[in-house]
Amino acid sequence: MSAGEVIKCRAAVSWGANEPLVMEDVEVAPPKAGEVRVKIMATGVCFTDISASRGKILDVHFPVVLGHEAAGIVESVGEGVTTVKEGDHVITLFLPQCKKCRVCKLDDSNTCLEFTSGSQSRQLMADETTRITCKGKQLLQFLGVSSFSEYTVLKEFNLTKINPAAPLDIACLLSCGFPTGYGGSVKTAAVKPDSVCAVWGLGGIGLATVLGCKHRGAKTVIGIDLNDAKREIAAEMGVTDFINPKEVEGPMDKYLNDKFGCVDYTFECIGNMYTVKQSLECAAIGNGVCVLIGVPPQEMELNILPIHFLLGKKLTGELFGSFKGVDEVPLLVEKYLDGKLPLDKFITHRIKLEQVNEGFDMMKEGKCLRTVIKNE
User: Fold this and answer.
1) What's the CA angle centered on 294, arms 289 and 298, to 5 degrees?
2) CB–CB of 42/176 below 8 Å?
3) Which domains does the chain possess?
4) Strands 151-155 and 137-141
5) Contact at 8 Å (CB) between 103 and 3?
6) What pLDDT band is residue 1 in, cutting at 50, 70 and 90?
7) Which intervals of the chain form a coiled coil (predicted)?
8) Is the whole model's pTM more than 0.85, yes or no?
9) Which residues 6+ apart lie within 8 Å of 366 measured at CB?
10) Beta pairing class for 265-268 and 64-65
11) To pair with 179 at 20 to 30 A between CA atoms, which of 87, 293, 340, 370?
């Protein structure tokens, strides 16, 4: 039995910006009050992890254990934990749901204040320390998760219990990327039937956005990507018209308007300021909605003309697809088990934890949709 004891295990540690992750022996302390220690069974490689390793987003500091898109099994719980117990299957949540803050009490928002101003924003636990150490140094815990480790400790509201029938190496996709894209079209935009949608960037998040548009009954889904190799999977997910920007002459908004009449919903899934502006320009006058889904570098600013808003366009954004994680992720798991979410098709590679840098390289080079690290 390991409950109450320090667990020694392996983790991929980021010691500094723009440095490769290093496999290290680490110590994971027992959970304190309101915390849960989890054996990580599978974790996805997300571009947010890559951006964090470069020091480009979320004011990340080092040394840190990255990784945030994971599923695992509860090893032990701290005092006062009531929602999970030892042996439960869980999905980690980088966006918590404390159910106590002002935002959690709203019906139409999911941006829990624990994420923006709580200890998690400083990569710490509630007592302003961490539970993972290496060589006598505290390792910061990325997004309250740190799943590039065989074990980690999370606050109770940073995870949710799921049906154990779901394979954890597939269910982990519901921890970040898939809900972020799928919810962008299903919940944030609430795409209307027979509408025209355009999605910039057909990686895992963009394709999940496409699938959401399809499920909401869009008649036309335009997929925009520089990689022609994505045409087949894009069509499978619901893209009716694939466009490579290199083949478009003149402004994209004129091209889309001439070909499709107008675009009701646009989704930017890249995090690039140029394509954010472009997607807003392409949204229809009068009722067009542009949803920002991709995460840009934190120092970037967006320069846009106010006339777009005066002409009736709307620009909005979301985190985690506007889903309230604790309450709604288990429902997505059930939807997967019912055969309604083809999560399997989003996984192109499975690797071991010690291959995490290879996983980063594949994502940077556009050679994968989602790479899953599977722990034995």
Assistant:
1) 115
2) no
3) 7-175+342-374 (3.90.180.10), 180-319 (3.40.50.720)
4) unpaired
5) no
6) low
7) none
8) yes
9) 203, 227
10) unpaired
11) 87
pLDDT band at 169 (very low <50, low <70, confident <90, very high): very high
Please report, as a single letter, which amino acid is at residue 59. Answer: D
* pLDDT tens track for 47-97: 999 999 988 776 789 999 999 999 999 999 999 999 999 999 999 999 999
Residue 111 tokens read as 């941006």
CA-wise closest residue to 237 among 261, 216, 254, 212: 212
Give the whole-angstrom CA distance, residue 241 versus residue 223: 6
Band of residue 299 on the pLDDT scale cut at 50, 70, 90: confident
Backbone phi, psi, residue 258, to 5°: -65, -35
**HEC secondary structure over the chain:** CCCCCCEEEEEEEECCCCCCCEEEEEEECCCCCCEEEEEEEEEEECHHHHHHHCCCCCCCCCCEECCCEEEEEEEEECCCCCCCCCCCEEEECCCCCCCCCCCCCCCCCCCCHHHHCCHHHHCCCCCCCCCEEECCEEEEEHHHCCCCECEEEEEHHHEEECCCCCCHHHHHHHHCHHHHHHHHHHHHCCCCCCCEEEEECCCHHHHHHHHHHHHCCCCEEEEECCCHHHHHHHHHHCCCEEECHHHCCCCHHHHHHHHHCCECEEEECCCCHHHHHHHHHHECCCCCEEEECCCCCCCCCCCCCCHHHHCCCEEEECCHHHCCHHHHHHHHHHHHHCCCCCHHHHEEEEECHHHHHHHHHHHHCCCCCEEEEECC
